[in-house]
Amino acid sequence: MKVQNVSKVMLVAVVAAALTGCGNMSTRDKSTIGGAAIGGVAGAVLTGGSGWGTVGGAAVGGVIGNQVGK
């Protein structure tokens, strides 16, 4: 089996496991996670891939998502 095929199978397994774990989350929890994900991506883009920018963006996005999900 090629490495690319193994990588694809592992990616699908990880995504499936992550989605299963979100089944009993509240709307506020989902908003917090979504905000953190969007903030992390935005922080990485705005700082050129800086680790600190990504973490800072995720933190700010998580707080905003938490407040929006009230």
TrEMBL record:
PROSITE patterns noted in UniProt: PROKAR_LIPOPROTEIN
Domain Glycine zipper 2TM: 31-69
Stored InterPro entries: Gly_zipper_2TM_dom
Top-level taxonomic group: Bacteria
Name of the protein in question: Glycine zipper 2TM domain-containing protein
